[in-house]
Write a structure and sequence with these properties.
alpha/beta; 12% strand; 15 helices
């Protein structure tokens, strides 16, 4: 009911012109909306995980809507510089993509080029160095979802226990995923990849087809190097998409990530995104020591010059985000209502 009340409020603000007036205000001009996306479906990923995937059509609808709202889409570097000195244009927006999936090159880039929309990719680099390998834990979740019609599945040899799973049931499907992850967590990347193929074969899912369409893979080194520098910034997201609680391990993740990005793009990255939005107080000093200038979270809000630059809010725009909510964030109306901090759960 709270969600419906918010939508009603947003519709009323739009109908009365309040939303448009706020979008033109000096108050909104002192604030920056950072948009967060993850994957753009190659096939049916948005049906599997609508919190992480949108369709290319939805991305184009959003960019068209930003144009209709007279939003000013800026690069991350320019936006943060102008936010600091108070020179943002009206309805300033930054578009970011987390992870650097292959579908960014395949699906998102054509849309961004069409609208000449700059964007930032927060790139995790471990799987960039392993072309043709899908990210194993997310791929396992997707394969189990593809087999959701199966009622009694025996995963003997792929997990430690001998129980069967009803993959039609979401909770049992997650239990199967957890058991699979636990069994293979400490093995090599090659063993995990082979286990994915065995899992798909057990469930009668065409693994070769998943590989052919490059689902759940990251961009190749050539694709990262080939991103147009006038539109795309490539920034830090850790090497293995993890944030160790040990300072030395945390710094190693950053250093490996930094070195690969600089080698592929020819420029040093200075901005960071917390993997899965997991930010902790001790990370801030470690990021400063590494020379990181900004870091984005998954907490919704509009960024101001008063924000800690290492704890910047972002709106995670999903397949389920209503158009009215998106518009309300662009104009600033949504920032007047309380919002719960969210952290994305990756299955």
């Amino acid at each position: 009911m709270l969600g419906q009340a918010k939508l009603a409020f947003f519709r009323t603000a739009h109908a009365t012109g309040s939303s448009s007036a706020l979008g033109k205000s000096n108050w909104r001009r002192q604030r920056l909306l950072l948009l967060c996306y993850h994957g753009v479906s190659v096939r049916d990923e948005h049906s599997w995980n609508p919190e992480l995937y949108i369709t290319a059509q939805r991305l184009e609808e959003r960019l068209s809507l930003l144009r209709d709202l007279d939003a000013n889409i800026l690069s991350l570097s320019e936006a943060l510089q102008r936010l600091a000195v108070g020179s943002l244009p009206p309805r300033a927006v930054v578009i970011t993509f987390d992870d650097g999936a292959a579908d960014f090159a395949l699906r998102a880039m054509p849309v961004l080029r069409k609208y000449e929309a700059p964007a930032t990719v927060y790139l995790t680099t471990y799987y960039v160095e392993r072309p043709c390998m899908p990210v194993w834990n997310t791929a396992a979740s997707y394969i189990l979802w593809r087999a959701r019609h199966r009622r009694a599945v025996d995963l003997q040899g792929l997990i430690t226990s001998s129980r069967s799973f009803d993959l039609h049931d979401a909770l049992d499907r997650k239990a199967a995923l957890d058991a699979f992850r636990h069994h293979w967590q400490s093995t090599t990347t090659e063993a995990k990849h082979d286990a994915l193929g065995r899992l798909a074969s057990t469930l009668d899912i065409d693994f070769a087809e998943i590989l052919h369409y490059r689902q759940l893979q990251l961009m190749t080194p050539d694709e990262v190097s080939g991103l147009p520098s006038d539109l795309i910034q490539v920034e830090l997201h850790t090497h293995r998409h993890r944030t160790p609680l040990d300072s030395a391990l945390f710094r190693r993740e950053l250093d490996e990530n930094h070195a690969i990005i600089q080698d592929l793009t020819g420029r040093a990255p200075h901005h960071f995104c917390y993997p899965s939005g997991h930010a902790r107080p001790e990370f801030l000093d470690w990021l400063r020591e590494a020379g990181v200038e900004s870091a984005t979270t998954c907490a919704p809000g509009l960024a101001t010059s008063r924000h800690n630059p290492l704890l910047l809010p972002r709106l995670v725009d999903t397949s389920h985000t209503p158009r009215e909510t998106f518009v309300a964030w662009v104009t600033g109306v949504a920032a007047w209502l309380p919002n719960r901090t969210r952290t994305l759960a990756r299955l």
